[in-house]
Amino acid sequence: MTQPDNSENFVPRGAIAFFAFLIALGLIIWFGIYFLMLDRV
């Protein structure tokens, strides 16, 4: 039961892209609320 050579340099690009998308979406929402609060002052 030997592992194929491709398993050592396997990169879950879909998961990385998904988490990067979540972080970007959170930052967009955070900055949107932040600038809305700045406009009220």
UniProtKB/TrEMBL annotation:
Pfam families: CoxIIa
Protein name as annotated: Cytochrome c oxidase subunit IIa family protein
Transmembrane helix recorded as keyword: yes
Residues passing through the membrane, by range: 15-37
Organism: Chitinophaga jiangningensis
Lineage top rank: taxon: Bacteria
Alphabetical UniProt keywords: Membrane, Transmembrane, Transmembrane helix
